[in-house]
Specification:
two-stranded antiparallel ribbon; about 130 residues
């Protein structure tokens, strides 16, 4: 009976590990979504706080003119609003979160499957022993 309790506890731990992996993967997906929003959506920026006529800026990635990338030397306020380092920082932070999430999810899934397989093999051995007896 002890081995059954141990097996149930082992499966619960495996499920918790897999749940942590899923949580980290969701967090990484949110970071990727934030990065995509920063790169793909147009935005507005005011020259000073409370500016009634803010400048409209194109997205950082899909710009036809240089509104997002030229900077203040050409009288453009868009570059300072969404800097590349912020986007790259979000993207860089998502990598270790993704790797940890994949590792935990895989470990939890494999542990759970191996435990289920071991139980199935024990049941088959019991049936084979009962048939031979």
């Amino acid at each position: 009976m002890r081995s059954r309790e141990y097996d149930i506890d082992f499966r619960d731990r495996a499920r918790r590990i897999r749940a942590w992996g899923i949580g980290l993967l969701v967090l990484a997906a949110l970071q990727w979504t934030w990065c995509a929003l920063l790169l793909l959506t147009p935005y507005e920026v005011g020259k000073k706080p409370g500016d009634p006529y803010p400048a409209e800026c194109e997205s950082r990635l899909l710009t036809e003119r240089g509104t997002a990338n030229n900077g203040l030397q050409r009288g453009d306020w868009c570059q300072d609003e969404r800097d590349w380092p912020e986007v790259l920082a979000v993207l860089g932070l998502s990598v270790p979160v993704s790797v940890a999430g994949v590792a935990l999810f895989t470990s939890g899934s494999v542990s759970s499957r191996m435990s289920a397989h071991a139980e199935a093999m024990r049941e088959l051995d019991k049936l084979a022993d009962a048939r031979n007896a």
